[in-house]
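User: ABC transporter permease subunit. Structure?
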Amino acid sequence: MLETITQTVEQVRTGRRTIGDLGKTGIGTVGAVAMLVVLMFPVYWIVTASFSQGAGLMSSDGLFADPATYNLDAYRWVLFESDFVFDNGEVGEPGALFNSLIVVFVTVSVSLSVIIPGAYALSRRKFAGREKILYGYVLFTQVGAGLSIATLIALYALFVNLGLSNNLLVLGVFYAAGAIPFNTWLLKTFMDNIPVSYEEAAIVDGASQWQVIREVILPLSKPGIAVVLIFTFLAGWNEFIIAQTLLRPENYTLSVELYSLAANEYETPWTEFAAFASLFALPVAIIYFATQSYVESGLSFGGMEG
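Assistant: Predicted structure:
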């Protein structure tokens, strides 16, 4: 910090930077910090509310609950009495966490098994119908949201007629199908930036096509695969509307259980809701931080030297 200040003073003294430049930097920094505070405030509030006493999110004296009343009762309730881990807290009866993990596992597994080879084929291979497939992927990524209500109605009718309306595996496959077009296009775009000369050099050295994919393409694609992993994980973890429509209470995922707390017929237990929401968001944060280094490494990919 002291070194940065010393360099800044020296730059101003020598004329390399002006007072106006420093003012713009200062205003930009203050604005960025203010935006960060605004964006993080709801997270801070919901976490502190989960430690508060009773069912209120606010004290009579202000926006925040009294820190003197902080406790872990809400987390104990979520882990040992609610349907978060076990059904009604009864050990041996899988709860919403187990259901969500099944859906996410199927979503991620099916998605990556299609996205990775599909992205490689679209990036590196020339074949009949390639352009039409690419345009179709773009079409699915752009018009899907606009048809969401009609799709949901048709999906519900189809799944009910086929007897698949309460199946976690089928729900995971459906999420995967929705995640594949956009993420294949995303990973394909990333693979396009991998120089073909890397593959050619490996082939000259005697590598087979499979070895080229395994030893060259996949390692260099780790940042892109990490991003795709995050997106496909979120597709199976966060989705609520379709899960609520197709599943029955015994197969509810965490997102539906969280909504059920807020939609309580009598009174919403806000502290328990805040604790449930905090634990529900925790795996997302873990996945992001676990893959952060790969994502950041993708920013400098264009600067690699052969």
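The radius of gyration is 25 Å. DSSP finds 13 helices and no strands in the chain.
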